[in-house]
Amino acid sequence: MKKYGKLVALIGLAAMLVAGCKGKGSDQKEAGNWDKEMDISVVSREEGSGTRGAFVELFEIEEEENGEKVDKTTDEAQITNSTSVMLTTVEEDEYAIGYVSLGALNDKVKAVKIDGAEATTDKVKSGDYPISRPFNLVVKEGETNPLVNDFIQFVLSEEGQKVVEENGYIPEDDAKPYEPGSVEGKLVVGGSSSVSPVMEKLAEAYEKKNTKVDVELQTTDSTTGVSSTIDGSYDIGMASRELKDSETSKGVETKVLATDGIAVIVNSSNPVTELKKEQVKDIFTGKAYTWSEVDE
């Protein structure tokens, strides 16, 4: 009986030790409290992502060194390779911060205000929310393929721009009615994972009007979208950033299909509702380590 009593006592002691050794974040989560002293989980996109390229430029996270712009995103950042993975990562980590296309926002994460401005299409249109970038179609200069040109005409038409607006992006002005040509065949469109969701809707709408056309959509990243258009793997590339001089010099040009904001997102349990541009920069360059350092 004495041995049994000692065993019970030891088990009880072990249980208390395990409970006492739980991480601070775990205790806080169970208690339903958000701890601003916890480290910030920085989540960024992969190199080659147009969203990352636009984000680091707009928040001045890149610096010029020896005549070249260098991305100063902290090495501690967790790297995600698509918009959907970014959203899931921030949703599942209560101390995370990341960024996504405004049109990709869902109700499982929270977009914070930047310098007092909400991340909405109306605020982007008015210029109050300046964190925006173009969604570009990338084609070869002087493109003569009738199918390529007909698809682009549709995307930029009233019908195509209506699809753009219905999916949460800002359409281009002065769109004209679509005048379909007699086209058929296969069209390969590929690139940015930010542009891909709205491009999927555009392709579906286009195929309904042109039943002899098959649009194959390949989701990669903006850099691949450009390079694969240059080498002919894609008929049309998708880029969620402006093209570099080194890219346009290889014989490609862009046509803007929409304007999109970039939303800075945090976990829905995060009480932070607003950040300054400088604070976002400090977080993503590793100058701010805990949420208390950006808490106002």
In short, what is this structure?
The protein has 296 residues and is an alpha/beta fold. The chain has helices at residues 2-20, 24-31, 50-58, 83-92, 121-126, 146-155, 158-166, 196-209, 222-230, 245-248, 277-284, and strands at residues 41-45, 62-65, 68-71, 78-80, 96-101, 109-111, 113-114, 132-140, 185-191, 213-219, 236-239, 252-267, 274-275. It is found in: Cell membrane.
Characteristics:
two-stranded antiparallel ribbon; 2 domains; D-Maltodextrin-Binding Protein, domain 2; alpha/beta; 296 residues
Question: What report would you give on this structure?
Answer:
The chain is α/β, with parallel strands linked by helices and 296 residues long. Helices cover 36% and strands 24% of the residues. It has helices at 2-20, 24-31, 50-58, 83-92, 121-126, 146-155, 158-166, 196-209, 222-230, 245-248, 277-284; strands at residues 41-45, 62-65, 68-71, 78-80, 96-101, 109-111, 113-114, 132-140, 185-191, 213-219, 236-239, 252-267, 274-275. The longest helix is centred in the first third of the chain and has 19 residues, at 2-20. The model is unreliable at 1-31 (pLDDT under 50). It is a lipid-anchor. Pfam families: PBP_like_2.
